[in-house]
Amino acid sequence: MRIGLIGLGRIGSFHATTLAGMESVTELVVTDPVAAAVDAVTRRLPSVRAVASPEELLAAGLDGVVIAAATPVHADLVRAAVAKGVPAFCEKPIAGTVADSLAVRDAVAGSDVPVQIGYPRRFDPAFVAAREAVDAGDLGRVTTIRSTTLDPAPPPSSYLAGSGGIFRDCSVHDFDAVRWVTGLEVLEVYAVGSVDPDAPAEMYAEHGDHTSASVLLTLDGGAIGVVSNTRTNGRGYDVRLEVHGVEDAVAAGLDEGLPLRSTHPGATWPTGPAHAFFMDRLAAAFRDELAAFTRLAAGEIENPCTVDDAMGTAWTAEAATLSAAEHRPVTIEEVRSRAGDT
Fold it and tell me: For a 10 Å CB count at each end of the chain, is N or C smaller?
């Protein structure tokens, strides 16, 4: 397959390595407006071909395109790919605003060109096993879900300035995991956030963003979800999910790289080393996710994360952002009504 890749920042460069190493990808064509980013990838991966623009890339006769560019341009790039008939994989979120996300949803609604939204935890073996346990009924009625994403260090200020805030760029992974693993939908959100007093104001406070956040989710069926996030977890990259039911409970992410130190006398687990970042903790998930996209583009499988499905996560992020700003519970119905999506 001939695959294109738009965006060669932190995640795009990582995807370039993965795609270049896949047997099914016979040619990888890349583009990025930053020449240094392109040079770094093409030097490291000599087989990769670079072009000057997304327009040139989409006109190159591709079988699929991976969009890993900055969030504000997701909507335009997805629509351009669909217009060209090129199957697209788009990193979360769908777009930078609700209005743009809805525009993407409406643009692809009548198209047979598949668009997959990137949520890699759907491909992490432990998360997959947790979902299978829920689907099999092993847990009985689900009562509580706890999802955690603790980054070891914040992303660059240039990323934060356009990310939309912690609920849209970080918590969304937890919101999606909660929805996907349990099959339950979020009804209401109550979110709180704080800012590290030592953090530069231009990175957080000036954008109404937070360095740490917690979200309480009311789910259909009476289950309650708890999401915890921070941008500065000193011990490492912590991604976990617990699902508790009336019959059993399971956890994903409790491996030897879990970045926690037990204070129980004599405890030696986990043995480490602690996960340093998403590139090592979720490496297998990213590979499987992109492999799934190539199969989707080839027409071999159903879409593992449609735009419609990802909108459920987007609404949750919008509700959390509003809740933290106004210090009150916010329903999904309210944010959809505000956006005119009734």
Answer: C
